[in-house]
Amino acid sequence: MSTPWLPLTQSQQITDLAQASHEQPVLIFKHSTTCSISAAAKSKIERQWADSGLNVPIYYLDLLRFRPLSAQIAEAFGIRHESPQLLLIKDGECSYDASHMGIRLADISAKVAQ
User: Fold this and answer.
1) What range does the domain containing 81 cover?
2) 79 contacts 23 by C-beta, under 8 angstroms
3) Which residues contact 36 (CB under 8 A, 6 or more apart)?
4) How large is the C-alpha radius of gyration of the chain?
5) DSSP conformation letters of 5-67
6) φ/ψ (deg, to 5) at 89
7) Measured between alpha carbons, how far is 5 from 51 in angstroms, rounded to an integer?
8) Could you tell me which InterPro entries the record lists for this protein (predicted)?
9) Per-residue pLDDT tens digits for 20-76
10) Is 98 helix (H, G, I), strand (E, B) or coil?
11) How far apart are CA 10 and CA 68, in angstroms?
12) What is the separation of C-alpha 24 from the centre of its chain, rounded to a whole number of angstroms?
């Protein structure tokens, strides 16, 4: 199964996914399309997705095309912007974030299960 990326392209989606996270955790992956580290992190997520056991929405933010959304995410969830970055939104808050090669789906799976 390939990664079920959901494009994050509009400000309203951030509000909507924060609300939805009260029912089910949501992931946001912030990706710079010109960064080799970001490309490696994205590829790692895609390779590990099927075996991760995760069954949650995962949003994909193209930072170069939608940079203002990254600032909005940082403000809405009280986190520092990094790229690449994987955020777990649960009950309207960022309960976990990882960046660069620290991104591990096994860590996210453990947090989702809590």
Assistant:
1) 5-113
2) no
3) none
4) 13
5) EEE---HHHHHHHHHHTTTS-EEEEEE-TT-HHHHHHHHHHHHHHHHH---S-EEEEETTT-H
6) -105, 120
7) 16
8) BrxC (IPR022551), Thioredoxin-like_sf (IPR036249)
9) 999 999 999 999 999 999 999 999 999 999 899 899 999 999 999 999 999 999 999
10) strand
11) 10
12) 14
**Does the pLDDT at position 101 exceed 90?**
no
The total domain count for the chain is 1
Nearest to 84 by CA among 61, 105, 106: 61
Give CA–CA dist 28/34, Å, rounded.
Answer: 18
Question: Taking a C-beta distance cutoff of 8 angstroms, is the pair 110, 90 a contact?
Answer: no
Task: Return the structure tokens found at 108.
Answer: 């996210």
Tokens of 24: 């089910």
| Residue pair 106/52 in contact by the 8 Å Cβ criterion | yes
Determine the length of the chain.
Answer: 114
Is residue 94 within 8 Å of residue 80, measured between CB atoms? no
Residue 104 in tokens: 């591990």
Whichever domain contains 26, its CATH number is 3.40.30.10
Residue type, 25: P
